[in-house]
């Protein structure tokens, strides 16, 4: 088992042509692997601009089967470069049923499985409930050549229950492909506070679960949204080990020592000390 692994996060802009976005992503995977990355994660919905800013039924035609043609391209890249690849795709499951889905591909090109985004937002310029059916595959972790990993997606970042359940499945690293940014009025009035909250909650997941957290965001202006980049990796103490800039593309590489997870969990045994018999109400919508 590998103790020290290098994570590669591909933070990029997205243009209007899917093939060009795919080629940019494949080039990023190649660059990350050439610099030593063992696990490479792409940002949320990396094939297209963030199309959920408006409700438009024609945009369902952007979806594809998973596994499908893009999964095959990512699998070939994983095998060619000998690295694990995580890709975020718009999945066509059946007529009228679509998901925001992340695929996990092992370093030999083997398709290991997928996670469907569970928490679906509906906010100005984030009309995801129009496009995505909530995920139904549960929370799980995959054994890869370079460690056991879990994958969640964007809005899932705000839910500690999801991080906990994935970590309880054995994930040593939680990956969050992301597409988050500001509208102009938000950035001016509370942009710093929003960005701080986004970082802080994920750093908390790392601490509470004694694992690494890797969030990869897109960058650049797309219609009404200014994506804030800032992709980062946090260690089990919640410290940010490295962070990409806000305003440009970046292939961010971070070495993680998975052997430290055992040591940290021995000294901060949060899993051991959980009082699971007291948590029954967590399944209720609200405690009236």
Compute the CA-based radius of gyration: 18 Å
Parts with pLDDT < 50 across at least 5 consecutive residues:
none
Instruction: Enter the CATH topology name.
Output: Nitrilase/N-carbamoyl-D-aminoacid amidohydrolase
N- to C-terminal separation? 48 Å
Succession of helices and strands? EHEHEEEEEHEEHEEHEEEEEEH
Task: Please tell me about this protein's structure.
By secondary structure, the protein is α+β, with helices and mostly antiparallel strands. It has one domain: Carbon-nitrogen hydrolase (Nitrilase/N-carbamoyl-D-aminoacid amidohydrolase, 4-Layer Sandwich). The protein has helices spanning 18-34, 69-81, 128-131, 160-168, 184-209, 259-267; strands at 4-11, 39-42, 84-94, 97-105, 111-116, 122-123, 126-127, 141-144, 147-151, 173-177, 181-182, 212-216, 219-222, 225-228, 232-234, 240-243, 250-257. The strands form 4 sheets. Strands 5-4-3-2-1-17 form a 6-stranded mixed β-sheet. A 6-stranded mixed β-sheet has the order 8-9-10-12-15-16, covered by helices on one side. Strands 11-14-13 form a 3-stranded antiparallel β-sheet. It is globular. The mean pLDDT is 96.
């Amino acid at each position: 088992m590998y103790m020290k692994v290098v994570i590669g996060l591909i933070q990029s802009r997205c243009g209007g042509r899917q093939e060009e976005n795919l080629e940019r992503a494949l080039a990023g995977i190649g660059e990350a692997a050439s610099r030593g990355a063992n696990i490479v994660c792409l940002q949320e919905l990396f094939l297209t601009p963030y199309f959920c800013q408006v409700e438009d039924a024609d945009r369902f035609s952007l979806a594809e089967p998973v596994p499908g043609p893009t999964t095959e391209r990512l699998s070939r890249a994983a095998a060619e470069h000998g690295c694990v690849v995580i890709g975020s795709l718009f999945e066509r499951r059946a007529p009228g049923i679509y998901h925001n889905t992340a695929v996990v591909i092992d370093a030999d090109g083997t398709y290991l499985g997928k996670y469907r985004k569970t928490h679906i937002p509906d906010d100005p310029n984030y009309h995801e409930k129009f496009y995505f059916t909530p995920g139904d595959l549960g929370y799980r972790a995959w054994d890869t050549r370079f460690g056991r990993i879990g994958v969640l997606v964007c809005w899932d970042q705000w839910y500690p229950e999801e991080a906990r359940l994935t970590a309880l499945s054995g994930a040593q690293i939680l990956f969050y492909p992301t597409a988050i940014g500001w509208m102009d009025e938000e950035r001016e009035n509370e942009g710093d506070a929003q960005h701080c909250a986004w970082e802080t909650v994920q750093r908390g997941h790392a601490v509470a679960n004694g694992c690494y957290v890797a969030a990869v965001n897109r960058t650049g202006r797309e219609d009404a949204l200014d994506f804030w980049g800032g992709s980062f990796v946090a260690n089990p103490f919640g410290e940010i080990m490295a962070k990409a800039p806000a305003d440009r593309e970046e292939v961010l590489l971070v070495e993680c020592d998975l052997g430290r997870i055992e040591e940290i969990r021995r000294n901060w045994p949060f899993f051991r000390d959980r009082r699971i018999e007291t948590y029954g109400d967590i399944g209720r919508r609200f405690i009236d």
